Amino acid sequence: MDTIQQLLQISAKLLKHLTKLPKGEERSKFIDEINTLLDERGVIIERLRQEGFQMDPTNKLHTTLAELDNGIRTRLDEMMKLVKQDMKDLQQSKKHEKQYINPYASVQVMDGMYYDKKK
């Protein structure tokens, strides 16, 4: 099979996989599948670079590949934003949990000292 056809198939499979963004526990399996597909795609792209591949805007396969690549990039950005937001939420929940356990941890007091301002 032609390497461009292989790249087209893997890119389409990756884009289809990225259409549904899971939540919670199934996300790690989802990300593992993304990494596998990206690795396969990277090998094929490297093979095309070694062959001296050049994008031809008049070729329909090349324009389809460019469109797929743009779709993959935008969906990967969305996935990255979701993961970053989840990490931020986790950090906030940890912070709130610490404040709930010890609400006076941030208060600085001078125990045992009394200052009289009168002379």
Automatic annotation (TrEMBL):
Keywords: Bacterial flagellum biogenesis, Cell projection, Chaperone, Cilium, Cytoplasm, Flagellum. It is found in: Cytoplasm, Cytosol. It comes from the Bacteria. The keyword Cytoplasm applies. The keyword Cytoplasm applies. Pfam families: FliT (PF05400). InterPro entries: FliT. Belongs to the bacillales FliT family. May act as an export chaperone for the filament capping protein FliD. This is Flagellar protein FliT.
